[in-house]
Design goal:
Rossmann fold; Heat Shock Protein 90; 594 residues; five-stranded mixed beta sheet; Ribosomal Protein S5, domain 2
């Protein structure tokens, strides 16, 4: 194959483009989301968590004198300080602990000594992403301070501290580097929310004192004490518990992992809420949650189907039935935790699944022996849930024949995509909108369904009227994941449900009615981020042969006043040219005619 001279030069120069970043702090800033998951406020909160959890680890250690943690936060400065009265960072290791990769006391842990991290990377990442990062360490009457800028060990400044006779422990103060993290607007309440979510994981009696300053100068002070462990956290997410919360936990025989769980069911809301933590870190999900759900579902499902329901009952309990209204705090610790990324959003150790599953089943067996009244209450609750599900499934099947294809079981007007992956469902307003969309859609990914008129207002109608509504029945059949309490997000094949109504008052009303329906009967579509709405343009103008669209009159007028005048010369009938101010005045006076 013959190459051009330019191609040959590019091949030869390829080696010059390959760069190795030797400096760890610089490498972190180049790929900050790999370590913190996010920039902005979420990234800053993760930085705060990393530093707070270092002090939390110190408080949890049996050989540490640490009894409390103090947190100070300034909204105007976006500066955080965390202080503990623990052992203090060894003075001859201050720089390498916070700036040298693969430096940590976690490498030589004994079984049963759990910590929030494995490699000591979290504090170093926070240091690398901070405009300044100051560590003060007080040990037995002596004090040292090290000041970093952008996590650079080479320029770290170390000084002796005076008047330290009565001080012991470590203080870390830092501010995020705006060029890396973006502008942050974290509030005192954001920091307090994080702290309150973590305190129940500490040992009983642990105390955290928070002092903050708001953007308007107001002082915020609050002391958070772990009075009852996970129960404190569970009480914040339960309104009307059906049974006294069930609580259990265990350390595996080899001390390699442990789990603690508290849960109940809430009659006030049928959604599922699970707060999970892995090695003291808040997680979105994980194998510990998978194990808990598997064990809890199996125990209650088996008990209901084998012992509680009559032998000839046509009703059966499903996994989804025993998750309706579930409220749980699920925590675990592992000697070698595996997280998806440094941001620690998901813990993925495979051996946690059987450990937590078996622990859950065994604990529920023991609980049932001692709490027969609560067992009967929860069984009746599950039976009621299953009966509602069975009834709604039967009603949902009564979609009128004229609205449903006898072959597919789906509405006749539904335009089905040909593919099976990355699917999007557009809910259109009327048949007229479907025609253009049908001709311009991606046939493999995008499905269309035109609704007729306005659907029922689900917040003002009975459940029976909602189920009987033809448009609701059609949408439910197309989405194919159930309805209300029986809705199962795992069965939904659509990655996006897109409401595409007209840009007029009727369209806005229809969009609101659809949003109410999804909120009431398919809420997981919203919480999982699958529900969208289009923003159709109201105005358009042709620019250089291409159409430019505007979603509101303000944007359209602004274009006419600024951009249109640059391209076109306007004059009166007597050929007098209009100035820009003349055009603005003309447009403002005649805005209703544009």
């Amino acid at each position: 194959m013959a190459y051009t001279k330019e191609q040959i030069e590019k091949i030869k120069s390829y080696n010059k483009q390959i760069r190795t970043i030797e400096n760890f702090a610089e490498a972190v800033r180049k790929t900050v989301t790999q370590y913190l998951g996010y920039t902005g406020n979420k990234g800053f909160i993760n930085m705060i968590r990393e530093i707070f959890q270092n002090s939390a680890d110190e408080l949890m250690k049996d050989d540490s004198p640490c009894t409390e943690i103090h947190v100070a936060f300034s909204e105007p400065l976006q500066e955080l300080a965390v202080r503990d009265n623990g052992r203090g960072i060894p003075h001859n290791s201050l720089v390498r602990v916070f700036a040298s990769q693969h430096t940590s006391s976690n490498y030589d842990k004994k079984p049963g000594e759990f910590s929030s991290g494995r490699h000591g990377v979290g504090a170093k990442v926070t240091n690398a992403c901070s405009e300044y990062f100051i560590v003060e360490s007080y040990i037995l009457g002596k004090g040292k301070k090290v000041e970093f800028k952008l996590g650079d060990a080479a320029t770290a400044k170390i000084t002796d501290l005076k008047d330290v006779e009565n001080k012991q422990g470590t203080t870390v103060t830092f501010k995020p580097y705006e060029e890396t993290m973006g502008k942050t607007t974290v509030t005192c309440q954001d920091v307090l929310k994080l702290i309150k979510s973590l305190v129940p994981l500490l040992k009983q009696g642990a105390k955290v004192v928070f002092n903050g300053q708001t953007i308007d100068g107001a002082k915020v002070r609050e002391t958070i004490v772990n009075m009852d462990g996970l129960m404190d956290g569970l009480n914040t997410i339960v309104k009307k518990p059906i049974i006294t919360p069930i609580r259990f936990g265990a350390l595996r025989d080899d001390k390699w992992m442990k789990a603690e769980i508290a849960f109940t069911f809430d009659s006030a809301d049928d959604s599922e809420i699970i707060h999970s933590y892995g090695n003291f870190c808040p997680t979105r999900d994980g194998t510990h949650v998978e194990g808990f759900i598997a064990g809890m579902s199996k125990y209650f499902r088996n008990y209901m189907n084998k012992f509680y329901l009559p032998a000839k009952s046509k009703l059966t309990i499903t996994n989804n039935d025993v998750r309706v209204g579930l409220r749980a705090i699920v925590t675990c610790s592992h000697m070698e935790p595996e997280f998806t990324g440094q941001s620690k959003e998901i813990i993925s150790n495979a051996d946690l699944v059987p450990f937590v599953r078996d622990l859950t089943e065994a604990s529920l067996e023991e609980w049932a022996k001692r709490n027969n009244n609560d067992l009967q209450k929860i069984c009746k609750y599950f039976k009621d849930i299953a009966e509602i599900r069975a009834k709604s499934e039967g009603e949902r099947a009564k979609v009128k024949v004229k609205e449903v294809s006898s072959i597919s079981g789906l509405p006749k007007k539904f335009v089905k995509p040909t593919g099976k992956k990355n699917l999007e469902l557009f809910i259109m307003e009327g048949d007229s909108a479907t025609g253009p969309a049908k001709n311009n859609r991606d046939n493999t990914r995008q499905g269309l369904f035109p609704i007729r008129g306005k659907i029922v207002n689900v917040m003002a109608a009975t459940r029976e009227k909602v189920v009987a509504n033809q448009e609701v029945a059609a949408i439910t059949a197309i989405i194919g994941a159930g309805f209300g309490r029986s809705f199962d997000i795992e069965k939904c094949k659509w990655e996006k449900i897109i409401i595409a109504t007209d840009a007029d008052p009727d369209g806005a009303h229809i969009r609101c009615l659809l949003l109410k329906f999804f909120l009431m009967y398919m809420q997981p579509l919203i919480t999982s981020g699958r529900l969208y709405a289009t923003v159709p343009p109201l105005y358009g103008a042709k620019i250089n042969g291409k159409m430019k669209y505007f979603t509101d009159r303000t944007a359209y007028n602004k274009y006419l006043q600024k951009e249109f005048f640059k391209i076109h010369n306007l004059s009166l009938s007597n050929k007098v040219k209009l100035t820009e101010s003349d055009v603005v005045e003309l447009l403002n006076k005649n805005t209703n005619y544009i």
